[in-house]
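Re: 2-acetamido-2-deoxy-beta-D-glucopyranose structure - here you go.
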Amino acid sequence: MSRFKPLRYHVVLAAVYASFVNATYLPGRSCKAFPGTAYWPSETQWNHFNDSLSGRLLQATPPAAVCHPDWPAYDPSACSDVKSDWSVYEYHSENPVSIMWDQFTNDTCLPKEEFPCSARGYPAYVVNATTSEHVKLGVDFARTYDIRLVVKNTGHDYMGRSIAPGGLSIWTHHLNSIHHHVGPFKLDDCDTSIPGNAVTVGAGAQMYDIYSATDAFNETIVGGGGKSVGIGGYITGGGHSILAPRFGLAADQVLQMEMVTPAGKILTVNENQHPDLFWAMRGGGGSTFGVLTSVTLKTYPTPKLLSTAWMAVTDPNAPFLYDVIAYALSQFPSMGDAGLSGYTFITSRLPNPVPSPGAPEELAGVLGQFVLQETENVQSLQNILNPINQTLKERWLGAVQVITSTRPYSSFLAWFEDHYDQGTAGNSSYLVSRLLDRHALESDEAALANAVKEGMSISGGLGAYIVSGKGVHDASPRGGSNAVNPGWRTTYVHTRFPAIQRNRKDRGY
Ligand SMILES: Cc1cc2nc3c(=O)[nH]c(=O)nc-3n(C[C@H](O)[C@H](O)[C@H](O)COP(=O)(O)OP(=O)(O)OC[C@H]3O[C@@H](n4cnc5c(N)ncnc54)[C@H](O)[C@@H]3O)c2cc1C
Ligand SMILES: *[C@@H]1O[C@H](CO)[C@@H](O)[C@H](O)[C@H]1NC(C)=O
Ligand SMILES: *[C@@H]1O[C@H](CO)[C@@H](O)[C@H](O)[C@H]1NC(C)=O
Ligand SMILES: *[C@@H]1O[C@H](CO)[C@@H](O)[C@H](O)[C@H]1NC(C)=O
Ligand SMILES: *[C@@H]1O[C@H](CO)[C@@H](O)[C@H](O)[C@H]1NC(C)=O
Ligand SMILES: *[C@@H]1O[C@H](CO)[C@@H](O)[C@H](O)[C@H]1NC(C)=O
Ligand SMILES: *[C@@H]1O[C@H](CO)[C@@H](O)[C@H](O)[C@H]1NC(C)=O
C-alpha cells in the first residue's frame, strides 16, 4: 500500500502546480492544445486575452474562404480579387495568415470553388502586434495554455515555418517603424559607441520600405532581392544580398536587437548584453530563439552601380550544353574576386527572349544580371568579361552566343527599381539549395557539368547567385561572430533549384 503514497503525492503536487500557473497543462501530455480539444482555452479566456491586447486579437479566416459558398465569408466579387491576387507576394504579406506557397496549408483552402475549403491548414487566432508588449502577451498566453506558437511576418518562408494549423500566430507585419541614426550609434546600457550611420527598423519592416527610407539619406542597407521580404525572417536567416560580396551578409551588419524570449522577457541584446542570444539571433533561423521585435543595422553610402545583362547561350540540343554552363560557373569565383556580383539563371530550354527571323526559337545557357559597384567605367567591366566571352566563342567554335547590355545606375535603389525579384507566389514551391565554394566551382569542370545536368533534370532551371565573396569571407560581425552557417565564409555562389509540386490532381495541380 505504502508504495503508492509517493505517486499520489506527485499527483496532488501536479494539480496544485497546474492551478497555480492557471494552466490546463498536464505533465506528461505529449500534444499541444488544439481547437476542439478539452485543453483548448475557453471563450472567456480568449476574450480576456483579447482585452489584455486592447482588442488586437483576430480570429483567423482562410483568405480564400470568400470563394466557398459554405463559408459565411462567401463573396463572389471578393473571390475574383483573391484569385487574381493569389500570385502576388504583397497580397499574402498584407494578410494576417496567408502565405506564399500553397503546400504549407496542405491546399486546404484554395481560391478554387471546385475544391472544398477548411480551416485545418490555418492558425486559430492571430495577435496583430504593434508593440513588443503585444508580442510578449502572445508568447505568454501560448506558453501558459500550451498552444502551438508561430510567428508570421510576410509569409515568404520557403519551409512553411510561418504558419501552423490550430496555433496562435503572432503577426509582426505592423511592427514596421523605420528610424535613421546619424552615427556613432550608442549601444543600450553601456558605453560602446559604434562608428557610422545606422537604421533601427521594426521586425515587420519590408525591404523596399527600408531601401526607400535609407535612400532619402543617400544610404542603403545590405538587403535582399524581394520587395516585400520582411527583415524578421531575412536577418534571422543570415540574409544574402547583391551587396554582400562587398560588405558581408545582412546578419553581419546588426548592431543591436530587441526581442521577446520564450519565457516572455523583452530584452535588448547586443555584444555586451545577452551576447549568447545576440549571437544566435543573427543567422540561427527564424522563430527559433525568440521573437525579434526590432533590429539596428549599419547603413552604407549608396553605391553607384554599373549593371549588365549578360547571356551566354546555345542550342538546347547541343551536346556540349552542360560543358558551357560548367565553364561559365567555373569563372564565378574570379569574377567575384574582381568585384562582380549578381544573379544568374541557368536554363536547359527557354523561348528566345529576343526572337528574330533566322534566330533559334529556343535557347539554353546562362542568363546573368551582374553589377560592379562604385564605377561608371565600362572598360573595367569589359576587362572582367572579355576574356570569358573570348573563351566561350573560341572553345565552342562560335556555337555559343554572348549577348550583353550595360547601363549605369546612380544608386542602389535606382538599380533595385528595375531589378527586384519579380517572381510569383501561389504555387507549391519547394526549394533545394547548395552553397558552392571555390573548390566546387573551379576544381573539376566535368564533375560540375554532371552535377548541374543532374539537378536540371529535376527542375529545368537553376538559380546561381553571386551573393557571397570577399566581404562575406572577411566579415567582422559585432562581438566576434554570429550564428550564420559557417559555409558562407568560403562560399561564392548560392544555387537554388526551384521544384514545383504538380501531383495534387485532387486540388487542380
Ligand atoms: C521573392 C523572394 C525573394 C527572396 N530574396 C532573398 C534574398 O535576396 N536574400 C535572402 O537572403 N533571402 C531571400 N529570400 C528568402 C527570405 O529571406 C526568407 O524566406 C525569409 O525567411 C523571409 O522572412 P519574412 O519575415 O519575410 O517571412 P516569414 O515567412 O513571415 O518568416 C520567415 C521565418 O522567420 C520567422 N520570423 C519572421 N519574423 C520573425 C521575428 N520577428 N522573430 C522571429 N522569427 C521571425 C517566421 O516564423 C518564419 O520561420 C527571398 C524569398 C522570396 C520569397
Ligand atoms: C477582440 O476585440 C475587438 C475589439 O473589441 C473585436 O473587434 C475583435 O473581434 C475581438 N477578437 C476576437 C477574436 O474576438
Ligand atoms: C503558378 O502560378 C502562376 C501564377 O499564378 C500560374 O500562371 C501558373 O500556372 C502556376 N503554375 C503551376 C504549376 O501551378
Ligand atoms: C493533406 O491532405 C491530404 C489529402 O486531402 C490528406 O490525405 C492528408 O492527411 C493531409 N495532411 C495533413 C498533414 O493534414
Ligand atoms: C492590424 O493593426 C494595424 C495597425 O493598428 C491596422 O491598421 C490593421 O487594420 C489591423 N489589421 C487587422 C486585420 O485588423
Ligand atoms: C543626396 O545626394 C543628392 C545628389 O548628390 C544631393 O543633392 C542630396 O542633398 C543628398 N541628400 C542628403 C540627405 O545627403
Ligand atoms: C563581352 O561582354 C562585354 C561586356 O558585357 C562586351 O562589351 C564585349 O563586347 C564582349 N566581348 C566580346 C569579346 O564579345
